[in-house]
């Protein structure tokens, strides 16, 4: 729910393959992505929206354990003293 300019900083830092956003945030996500990555609407009923993509996807087999040398996700700090920094989990 941050402005596109602030969200853009995070996208530049982590270089995701896609961005997922709900209906409330889709416009800001599209602005932040600047056409460099797909933005998938979590509430979008279109053929390229998340519900349709999920229904068409094959189930992922999952993992028994997560490799210790690979990030699970990134959580960004608030950036009160500068740009937000990623905390690797």
Rg, Å, rounded: 15 Å
Helix content: 25-40%
Q: Order of strands side by side in the largest beta sheet?
A: 1-2
Which residue ranges are poorly predicted, with pLDDT under 50 across at least 5 consecutive positions? Answer: none
Reading the helices and strands in chain order gives: HEHEHEE
What is the number of helices?
A: 3
Q: Mean pLDDT, rounded to whole units?
A: 90
- Give the overall shape, derived from the CA principal axes: flat
Major β-sheet, in short?
2 strands, parallel
Describe the structure.
This protein has 89 residues and is of the alpha+beta class. 29% of the residues lie in helices and 13% in strands. Strands 1-2 form a two-stranded parallel ribbon. A two-stranded antiparallel ribbon has the order 3-4. The longest helix has 11 residues, at 4-14. The radius of gyration is 15 Å and the shape is flat. It starts with a helix and ends with a strand.
Task: Describe this protein with a few key phrases.
89 residues, alpha+beta, two-stranded parallel sheet, two-stranded antiparallel sheet, 4 strands, 13% strand, flat
């Amino acid at each position: 729910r941050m402005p596109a300019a602030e969200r853009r900083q995070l996208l530049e830092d982590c270089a995701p393959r896609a961005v997922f956003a709900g209906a409330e945030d889709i416009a800001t996500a599209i602005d932040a992505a600047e056409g460099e990555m797909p933005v998938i609407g979590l509430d979008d009923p279109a053929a390229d929206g998340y519900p349709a993509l999920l229904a068409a996807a094959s189930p992922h087999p999952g993992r028994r354990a997560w490799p210790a040398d690979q990030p699970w996700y990134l959580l960004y700090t608030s950036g009160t003293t500068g740009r937000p920094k990623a905390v690797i989990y």
